[in-house]
Design brief:
The complex is a heterodimer of chains A (235) and B (114). With 235 residues, chain A is of the alpha/beta class. Chain A contains eight helices and seven strands. By secondary structure, chain B is an all-alpha fold. The chains are: A alpha/beta (235), B mainly alpha (114). At the A-B interface, helix 8 of A face helix 1, helix 2 and helix 4 of B.
């Protein structure tokens, strides 16, 4: 697939056959100026078949790697094909691609390394059960880096040129809040951009209450006790 | 416990902690594993430095010899770790199997297509 833009949209997909076609259609309609690539993470349903049928650019993983592995595949592709930056869009329809041009503009204008599409820059983050995890992560990141991140779990992040190589090849680079904490400690320039996100339109979320708690405590442990010790790399 | 023994224990535990921290620092381990090993190494240092803790604990629990309690704790942690490793190995094996199977089927389909 010929490279048309400097920005690559990475769509990791696992068992999203119900929503993937709509997501791809929206990308082609709303942001046709950007290249995109779907990374099929060893789906058991027709996700890959649907992508092939509609002619989507597809990286078809022969086995399941999880979100981190799938996303990193997209990053490798981005780096090796010479893209300047890459943004993650989820395959469940929650991320609205119309904010991408704005995110890219901010990144270029202010020479940022990472733009996080955040629901809570101008809107206040609500105090409910769902947002407890987000609040705890925010506090942990602030404790270890001094920086407030209003929406640490937002998956819609634009990674800049200086991060591409590391995100593409490092064994620890993941599209998760603890990586954001690590990057902040490395002196990365991080900015949040106000967006609205939608609810999942179809399919099932991976997170149930128990998994959410495990995920949050895992992330907190990493941010508070592990990212601390890792050698800061020069960006 | 003799002073020499205590010093040896503390040195040993600190050496282990240094080794673990260096591995984490150089990103030779994944963050998931790093937390366990950092916590484990810190625990060893604390127990080595404050040997009375084990003595008091075994008194409370009613364990005959403090050494037994240390054995119990470490063995329990090791069992948990082995269990986790087993799960990880199973996942790796499954991924390998999928990869191999996928390659064979894709090769066959390619040949059929020709």
């Amino acid at each position: 697939m010929e490279k048309r833009s400097d920005l690559l949209i990475i769509v990791p997909a696992y068992n999203e056959s119900e929503s993937i076609a709509a997501v791809i259609e929206e990308l082609s309609r709303v942001v046709p100026q950007y290249d995109y690539v779907v990374v099929n993470d060893g789906s058991r349903d027709e996700t890959a078949a649907i992508c092939k049928k509609i002619g989507a650019t597809l990286l078809d993983l022969p086995a399941n790697l999880g979100l981190t592995g799938a996303f990193q595949t997209g990053m490798r592709y981005a780096y090796e094909k010479g893209y300047q930056c890459a943004v993650q869009i989820d395959a469940d329809g929650q991320h609205d691609p119309r904010y991408i041009p704005e995110m890219q503009r901010i990144m270029e204008e202010k020479d940022e390394d990472l733009i996080i599409a955040s629901r809570f820059v101008t809107e206040k983050r609500p105090l409910n059960a769902r947002m407890i995890g987000s609040a705890v992560l925010d506090a942990s990141i602030r404790l270890t880096t001094g920086r407030k991140i209003n929406d640490p779990t937002s998956g819609m992040r634009l990674y800049g040129k200086r991060l591409l190589n590391w995100m593409a090849y490092d064994l620890n680079s993941s599209p998760e809040p603890d990586t954001v904490a690590y990057l902040l400690r490395c002196g990365a320039r991080v900015e949040e951009c106000q967006v609205t996100m939608r609810e999942r339109t179809a399919g099932e979320s991976y997170l149930n209450p128990w998994r959410s708690v495990r995920y949050m405590s895992h992330m907190c442990m990493n941010i508070l006790f592990v990212q601390w010790f890792r050698k800061r790399r020069k960006l | 416990m003799s002073l020499a023994m205590r010093i040896l224990l503390i040195i040993g535990a600190c050496w282990m902690l240094t080794f673990v921290l260096r591995s984490v620092r150089r990103s030779r381990m994944r963050t998931e594993e790093s937390f366990f090993w950092i916590a484990f190494a810190v625990l060893m240092v604390i127990l080595a430095a404050f040997t009375d803790i084990i003595g008091t604990l075994s008194g409370w629990i009613g364990v005959e010899s403090p050494a037994n309690l240390i054995f119990l704790m470490v063995i329990f942690l090791l069992i948990l770790k082995i269990f986790a490793l087993d799960r990880k190995a199973a996942k790796l094996q499954h991924q390998m199997t999928e990869l191999i199977q996928r390659k064979a089927i894709d090769d066959a389909q390619e040949r059929e297509g020709q």
